[in-house]
Amino acid sequence: MTDLWPWALAAYPRPGVEAACLALQDEHGVNVCYLLWAAWGEAEARPLDLSAAVALAEAWEAKVAAPLRAARRDLTSDWACIAPDRRTVLREKLKQLELSAERLLLESLAALPPGRGPVTLAEAAALWPAPPPPQSIATLNVAITNPVYAEGVGGPQGDAPGVRS
Fold first, then answer.
1. Domain map of the chain by residue range?
2. Of 28, 105, 122, 165, most Cβ neighbours within 10 A?
3. What are 49-54's contacts with CB under 8 Å, separation 24+?
């Protein structure tokens, strides 16, 4: 059995995973950590409590993840009175804070009491308040379960889950 954080760091750089996760986040409002937690649970055949996870991840997305992401992304805009290099430094600090927040959420999701039985990524996605299209989840699932990476060997370690440069 693999802990969630190392599993997520190995899964995220796999071909297609980052793009699928960010599309689900940006186009459908699904929390990337929730998706990775569900995929990890499926891969490990862990019994997951989806309702507790949805409540936690949805609140975290609204109160922590989305505001940090918005602030980081806003710093790419031209702020006439603030030097670009100073914005870049702040943006990198926000990116690291986002990474810390994602790790905390992943660890908190992994620590939830077990549910009744193993579930699939598709079942977990269907319980998100605004469920994403099944095809989008299928795309993510194919990328995560690519047999080339089945042993948990990801590509080069890039950005952490949900955070892009």
1. 4-149
2. 105
3. 49/112, 49/113, 49/114, 49/115, 50/115, 50/119, 50/123, 50/124, 50/127, 51/127, 52/112, 52/113, 52/115, 53/109, 53/112, 53/124, 54/127, 54/128, 54/129
